[in-house]
Design a protein that fits this description.
Helices cover 26% and strands 17% of the residues. The protein is α+β, with helices and mostly antiparallel strands and 82 residues long. It is flat and about 40 Å long. The two termini are 17 Å apart.
């Protein structure tokens, strides 16, 4: 569940998308669909989305290997406006 925004200085949403394993057509969510949904939610909350994406082939969620954009996002989490 998303954390509640409680401080007025939070103006930025760090957003992330990656290509995941697709087991069936039902669970297939493209990076484009992820971006559309996540950015829409950020904007709904009045936040400026900053997008990070690791989409060049499957990117496992089990490790940070081959996920440089995820590592970049994590480095910004402690910023006061996030």
């Amino acid at each position: 569940m998303p954390r509640a925004i409680t401080k007025s200085n939070r103006t930025t949403a760090l957003c992330y998308g990656r290509k995941s394993v697709v087991r069936s057509g039902v669970d297939q969510v493209s990076v484009e669909n992820q971006r559309e949904r996540v950015v829409a939610e950020a904007e709904r909350r009045g936040l400026t989305p900053i997008w990070f994406e690791d989409s060049g082939g499957h990117r496992s969620g089990r490790s940070e290997k081959r996920r440089p954009q995820w590592v970049a996002l994590k480095s910004r989490i402690s910023e006061s406006n996030v």
